[in-house]
Amino acid sequence: MGNLTPELAALRDETRDLAKSYGLDFFEVIFELVDHDELNMVASYGGFPVRYPHWRFGMEYEHLSKSYAYGLSKIYELVINNDPCYAYLMRSNSITEQKLVMAHVYGHCDFFKNNAWFAHTSRKMMDVLANHGARIRRYMDRHGQERVENFIDVVHSLDNLIDPYSPYIDRGTETKPRRDDGDAREVKKIAAKDYMDRYINPPAFLQRERERMQKEELQSRQFPARPARDVLKFLMDHAPLETWEQDVLSMLREEAYYFAPQGMTKIMNEGWAVFWHSQLMTKHLCDASEVVQYCDTHSGTLATRPGQINPYKMGVELFRDIEDRWNKGRFGAEYQNCDDPETRRHWHRPTNQGRQKVFEVRRIYNDVTFIDEFVTPEFAEDQKMFVYGQDPQTGQLVVVDRDYTKVKNQLLAALTNFGNPIIKVVDGNHGNRGELYLVHEWVGGDLQLDQAQMTLQGLYRMWQRPVHLETNEGGKGRLLSFDGKNATSTEITATHPAVGRVGSAKA
């Protein structure tokens, strides 16, 4: 198992047994000892030793290498969600740091295995990505490296246009176009004698019925029948791609879905790992001679500044708050209905359910639901979650609003869809010209128009027909378009008919 020294192997076994004694449950963890250059290389590939060749990985490696050389950053650990889990230890770390990293890793591995949002991820992703790399290399040999790499660039520009919730729910989205069989339905008339027909079947009524049936017929031919949030899947099914392009797109889409849960649970995942490494280090692994170094490393990990969110700090403090609240009975209707601040502050009705509760939270929540449900006014006050602004006279950050709901809502907005705009396909045959029409599900934040236009260019490369994106800017409807040569931006007063029909967005 790995290439650890006897001392580190013994430390691994001790840490593993301690983690299990606390109830942590994880796949086998294989630790690999590497130097800083090897760790930077693996990190540049997203934690996997074998990926497809692409300039982006080389650029990331160069950045990490220079950051380490100049003392700007240092990677202490790297762990991969796999079965077995793989974790990398830097050879230059001290024994104290290795202890901390191992304890931290076992927290991550428990989270990977048990959190519901990772349930649909492949547990053999190490092999899957190696296979992807081999297939893409074959395409490069066959079609030319530059051509394949350029297509990968396009997919990378669109890889956030997925539906991260689709593995867990059935949206019933139908993306296949319905064929027009040419059979126009006739309005059914009530049988009547000729001289009574115009009274029993009024012409105005028949005309309204014809118009209604034509509208229904048009809607039945529209595709997708419902908005398609998984834009990459829609492109796979309907874009005029070559076979190899479709295969590359499917591989990169699969990878995007593998990494999506990590983005959805960043605060929880890091908080859970810190929660356990602090428990194991302070109560078991750290001896007297290591306390100062441990505290220095630990505090550096949790350091934050006013107006900023450190996921390690936010996550561990919220887990600790949950454990404390459930140990003291600070939950339920009686506590929630108590409106006396002093009584709430000194509330202590021991239930000792804290440890059980944090394990439950670890299992079923993601960052959005975690923050939404458990950030309380008391927690926000304790963690100084305020709205900050710059004092025009001193230039210093000062508190401008103590309403925790504003900070909480801002944080939830930033975490929703990883801070990316929600884009949906509503019409794959816009104007009956085969053009692609998408809508931005506007929830208060405007698009960055330059980036949106670049996204449209990537979509055009896939669709090979003009593409349109409906959004809002400053509360007014706006339509962004790209026809292969020209990018346009025009103000609109009405939405696409399909938008109104499905209710997915309003301009």
Strand order of the largest sheet: 6-7-8-9-10
Q: How much beta, percentage-wise? A: 5-15%
The helix/strand class is alpha+beta
Residues in helix, %: 40-55%
Number of helices: 21
Radius of gyration: 28 Å
Q: State the end-to-end distance.
A: 58 Å
| Principal-axes shape call | globular
Biggest β-sheet description = 5 strands, mixed
Number of strands: 10
* Whole-number mean pLDDT: 87
Folded structure, characterized:
The chain has 507 residues and is an alpha+beta fold. Among the domains are: 6-115 and 265-285, no CATH class; 126-166 and 229-263, no CATH class; 304-416, no CATH class. Helices cover 52% and strands 12% of the residues. The protein is built from 21 helices and ten strands. The strands form three sheets. The protein has a five-stranded mixed beta sheet with strand order 6-7-8-9-10. A three-stranded mixed beta sheet has the order 1-3-2. The chain has a two-stranded antiparallel sheet with strand order 4-5. β8 and β9 (476-482) form a beta hairpin. α1 (6-21) packs across α4, α4 (95-114) crosses α11 (266-285) and α6 packs parallel to α10 (243-264). Residues 178-184 and 501-507 have low confidence and may be disordered.
